[in-house]
Design a protein that fits this description.
By secondary structure, this protein is α/β, with parallel strands linked by helices. It is 47% helix and 20% strand. Strand 4 and strand 5 form a beta hairpin.
Length: 428
């Protein structure tokens, strides 16, 4: 459908896209490797369960299996583990999900019976360890060790099971049940640790932008995504997954964000390349940060070299200050990308109002596109939608040649991922 046609009905078009998007999302509820339901379906299912009970099974040192034996063996092992856990869970009237690369989850309901779930945790640890997985190609059996965390409370059960799992690992125990107050101790320890790290990094100028290359269809690096890293006192580079939450709690987030803006704008001004900067709603609503960004764009004259990646989020719709910031930036020449597109809010009417330049397709869809027909169908629909509105598409999490080839064949415009280039402190 041509949006420039005099017969183009925006309301009808948006309705059709919303319906198509809902149908495609339903196909995302299954893990393509194991055939188990995934995290998205877990969150959906738990809404309809009274007295939910959640068990998380973490496969210990699974990355070593992948590194030593290779990905094909690793995938085979995961499928065998999935069968074992699913069979056990069915006997206990629980449903099995794959919720991470090496994590499985059991969901059920029932009365508060800690003895029952302790018994189950013990049995699963023994079951996985004794059911050695035979690898015929190498004539070797692989022994599986696991750690288990579970929660018997009704509210926030997944996060609490995760906290129990972390306590079990720290204590080198086979399993742990969530107990009230566990998270307070853990959060307090982490807050102290990372607050000290961030204060030291700010004081000694160790807040560092890393740049991951983005390639065009000709294989040329013409753009980078800016990622924040922190260097500790031993020279180790720390990922934001460890410190970002703490930075907000101890009110250092604004200082860190401005530091990354300053450094990355200065670096990119020396080149003819483009950088993408991730912005949260809070960044655009915070007058101190948003004014600083505009000031630095003007100071370094990089308005034509900047793309702001904005998370697809329902909260954006009702924030006029965010819209005002985006419009001001666009008038300067800055371009806009919607990040993680395809699994978030997907309000198409709002996206058309925002008028982005790019749709960055969520990595959870891209990563298995070479093997998952449902992911492929979703990406095809997104590309069709983007072309209709004359937007460019970006694939992130391109981690293999097979994924790259599939994305290229489907017509994606730009590509990013470890197969093409890892984040680095230097612009190539």
């Amino acid at each position: 459908m041509d949006k420039n046609s005099p017969d183009f009905d925006i309301n009808s078009y948006c309705f059709e896209l919303e319906e198509e998007n809902k149908a495609l999302k339903d196909k995302l509820y299954v893990d393509s490797l194991t055939g188990l339901p995934n995290m998205l379906l877990y969150y959906k299912d738990i809404q309809n369960i009274q007295n939910p009970k959640t068990i998380i099974v973490d496969i210990d040192a699974f990355s070593e299996i992948n590194e030593y034996y290779g990905r094909d063996v690793g995938d085979f092992v995961l499928k065998e583990i999935a069968k074992t856990i699913k069979t056990y869970a069915l006997n206990e009237d629980m449903k099995t999900y794959r919720v991470g690369s090496d994590e499985f989850l059991l969901l059920g309901s029932g009365i508060l019976d800690i003895e029952k779930y302790e018994r189950m945790a013990k049995e699963m640890v023994v079951l996985l360890k004794t059911n050695e997985i035979a690898i015929q190609e190498i004539d070797e059996n692989i022994v599986i060790d696991s750690t288990i965390g579970f929660c018997l409370e009704d509210k926030d059960t997944f996060n609490k099971a995760t906290i129990a799992l972390e306590h079990a690992k720290k204590g080198q125990r086979d399993f742990a049940c969530y107990l009230h107050g566990m998270e307070k101790k853990s959060e307090y320890e982490d807050k102290l640790k990372y607050a000290k790290l961030l204060k030291g990094a700010l004081e000694h100028d160790k807040i560092i932008p890393y740049y991951q290359p983005i390639l065009d269809r000709d294989g040329n690096i013409f753009k980078y995504e800016t990622l924040v890293r922190v260097e500790d006192e031993d020279g180790k580079i720390i990922s934001p997954v460890f410190f970002m939450s703490t930075s907000k709690k101890v009110r250092l987030y604004s200082l860190m964000t401005k530091k990354i803006i300053d450094k990355s704008f200065r670096e990119i001004s020396k080149t003819d390349k483009t950088i993408s900067i991730n912005l949260l709603a809070r960044d655009m609503m915070d007058g101190d940060i948003s004014n600083h960004i505009i000031k630095q764009i003007r100071e370094y004259g990089v308005e034509k070299q900047i793309v702001f990646e904005i998370l697809e989020d329902e909260s954006i719709e009702n924030q006029s200050r965010i819209e005002n910031f985006i419009n001001k930036a666009k008038r300067m020449g800055v371009r806009i990308a919607i990040d993680d597109f395809g699994t978030g809010y997907s309000n198409f009417s709002y996206l058309m109002k925002l008028k982005p330049d790019y749709l960055k397709i969520d990595g959870s869809i891209i990563k298995n596109i070479d093997k998952d027909k449902n992911s492929e169908a979703i990406v095809e629909a997104i590309i069709h939608f983007a072309k209709t509105l004359k937007l460019k598409t970006i694939a992130e999490f391109v981690h293999s040649k097979e994924v790259y080839d599939k994305c290229y064949k489907l017509g994606i415009d730009e590509f990013q991922g470890f197969y093409l280039g890892e984040p680095s402190p230097n612009l190539l």
